[in-house]
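Figure 6 in text form: structure in, sequence out.
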């Protein structure tokens, strides 16, 4: 359906949809209600299904452009530094995949179709090393939803994105384990 639209229109459509959803989350109070305590309480209340609820909530929050770091801190708070890190790692990966799929469904690989010379040069670099690009993007920018959307708009294949994200999110996950308790002491309860 959207492939009939020009790449520019598809990019604008994605920005409009994501912007509208993010604004709705902000103005409805959803964004401000996602605190470390609330996420931890949801994980605790759901018992064995708490991990599934946490991961699903993390994925929706990423699509809505809500901060992913609070989810990482909440996982460490709910499950302890090591199990919490594993849960956060799974959540980060699923959330980043959700963003990628959401962006790809709405706009396809619109950036790969843009004819501007600078965009084409950038896309050529991404195509040359899609896994490395994803590893670097995820390692540096953590779970920033904009990275997932940008890579969704490129020609990166889903499997390359998943592999690159899985590798790229290892270091941020380990940092969460090492710094998790310290970070929890900084965040007011």
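Output sequence:
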């Amino acid at each position: 359906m959207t492939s009939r639209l020009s790449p520019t229109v598809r990019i604008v459509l994605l920005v409009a949809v994501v912007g509208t959803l993010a604004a709705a989350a902000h103005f409805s109070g959803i964004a401000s209600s996602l605190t470390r305590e609330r996420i931890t309480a949801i994980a605790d209340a759901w018992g064995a299904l708490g991990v599934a609820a946490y991961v699903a909530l993390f994925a929706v929050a990423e699509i809505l452009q809500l901060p992913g770091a609070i989810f990482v801190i909440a996982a460490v708070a709910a499950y302890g530094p090591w199990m919490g890190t594993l849960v956060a790692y799974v959540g980060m990966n699923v959330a980043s995949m959700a963003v990628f799929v959401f962006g790809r469904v709405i706009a396809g690989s619109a950036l790969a179709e843009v004819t501007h010379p600078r965009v084409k040069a950038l896309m050529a670099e991404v195509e040359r090393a899609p896994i490395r690009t994803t590893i670097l993007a995820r390692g540096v920018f953590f779970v920033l939803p904009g990275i997932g959307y940008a890579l969704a708009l490129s020609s990166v294949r889903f499997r390359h994105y998943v592999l690159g994200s899985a590798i790229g999110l290892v270091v941020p996950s380990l940092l969460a384990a090492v710094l998790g308790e310290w970070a929890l002491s900084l965040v007011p309860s």
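Caption detail: DSSP finds twelve helices and no strands in the chain.
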